[in-house]
Amino acid sequence: MKKIAGRFIIGAVTTLLVISLAVTVFAAPITRTLTATFRDIKISVDNKVIELKDANGNKIEPFIVDGTTYLPVRSVAEAVGYDVSWNDNTNTVILTTGNAPASNSTSTTPPTSSSKSAQTGLHYEFIYSKEQLREVGNRIYWSTLIEIENTGTEPLEIRMSGYDLTDESGKLLAIGSLSMVSHFPSILYPGEKGIFVDSTEIVGINIKTKVNFKPRWDMKTPKAERINLNVSDIDIREGKFGTSILGRITNNTGKEQTIGRIEVLLYADDGTPIGVAFDRIMENMPNGSSFGFDITIRSERLTLYENITPDMIASYIVYAYTGL
Fold first, then answer.
1. Going by CATH, does the domain composed of 227-322 fall within 2.60.40.3230?
2. Comparing 184-193, 244-253, 279-288, 299-308, which segment has the lowest mean pLDDT?
3. What residue spans define the domains of the chain?
4. Which of 56, 55, 57 lies closest to 8 in space, CA to CA?
5. CATH fold group of domain 97-217
6. DSSP H or E run through 77
7. How many helices (H) and strands (E) in the chain?
8. Is the separation of the CB atoms in 136 and 199 below 8 Å?
9. How does the average pLDDT of the chain come out, rounded?
10. Residues near 33 by Cβ (< 8 Å), separated by ≥ 6?
11. With 70 as the cut, is the pLDDT of residue 219 above it?
12. What DSSP designation does 90 have?
């Protein structure tokens, strides 16, 4: 039952969520024998009957088990505009629109939800993407935040080489270049998550303008190694100039290190990313030494919020490293 639930929409959305959570609890798959009833069930979306097919293009049919109708998730989700992918490591069906609902959200060309680089062994998934326009005084700013996971078996250098912003007619409104786009961190090891975030002013539009985001991704095997530093004593509090993240890093790499970075990925209580805070290490770090840090979250560029307070942060991921 649970193995089937991972690939099908079951009843209502609420049921799907409950079943999906149940699947992630059990490490070993459970196989059960079910009695299914087929009644030539059809699905109509906006008064149009859709053709139901699996990922390989084979026709499939909904069925009923114990009074519950099971529908093929890929066919139904794609019919209503969702992208569908499957994470075999976590037994999770991933539905993405590329644009989570939000006040003043813009239209988007979402990134592919599951991708493979031309280089063997490099696999990644875009697991969250959000864009929005916001008005600051008499200026309009476009912002984006994208979360990516290294689902492959090799280290992955993630970066966006640039992007174009256009209106619905295709007119170019603004651009972003590699030097402008922020990647946190720039190298992901298998199973790690990172965030792209950027914000830019667009001149000559209003808050209701539909903006299309066209990114250019450049994923490759990294030439450098990310040397991790130990992180401890994290404390998130209200500081003098906004929300502050205090902590300590320790150089336990076996040799002296120099310039490095501290990057904190911030998450809300529903697991969605809300921003990034970061700082640079600008002093020599002898082996075995420890340094305290205090990072103020600067919401104007590295988040989608005008102000992030400590109570908005339910969890975080800290990367402290050197070598890049």
1. yes
2. 299-308
3. 2-82, 97-217, 227-322
4. 55
5. Immunoglobulin-like (2.60.40)
6. helix 73-79
7. 4, 24
8. no
9. 77
10. none
11. yes
12. T
| Tokens describing residue 251 | 């150089």
Provide the b/e sequence for 106-144 (b: ≥16 CB within 10 Å).
bebebbebbbebeeeebbbbbbbbbbbbbeeeeebebbb
Q: How far is CA 270 from CA 267, 285, 313, in A?
A: 8, 37, 10
217 conformational bin, left if phi > 0, alpha if psi -120 to 50, beta if neither: beta
In the numeric block, which tokens belong to residue 172? 């170019």
**Which H helix or E strand runs over 79?**
helix 73-79
**Could you check whether 97-217 and 227-322 share the same CATH topology?**
yes
- Dist CA 228 CA 226 (whole Å): 6
Please give the Cα distance from 104 to 119 (Å, whole number): 38
Contacts (Cβ under 8 Å, ≥6 apart) of 179: none
Residue 244 is predicted with a pLDDT of: 93
pLDDT for the residue numbered 55? 64
Average pLDDT over residues 237-264: 90
Structure tokens at 88: 């075999």
Biggest distance spanned by C-alpha atoms of the chain: 72
User: Across-strand partners of 243?
Assistant: 238
Long-range contacts of 286-290 (CB under 8 A, 24+ apart): 286/251, 286/256, 287/251, 287/252, 287/253, 287/254, 287/255, 287/256, 288/250, 288/251, 288/252, 289/250, 289/251, 290/248, 290/249, 290/250, 290/251
The residue behind tokens 């139901």 is 52
Q: Is the pLDDT of residue 121 over 50?
A: yes
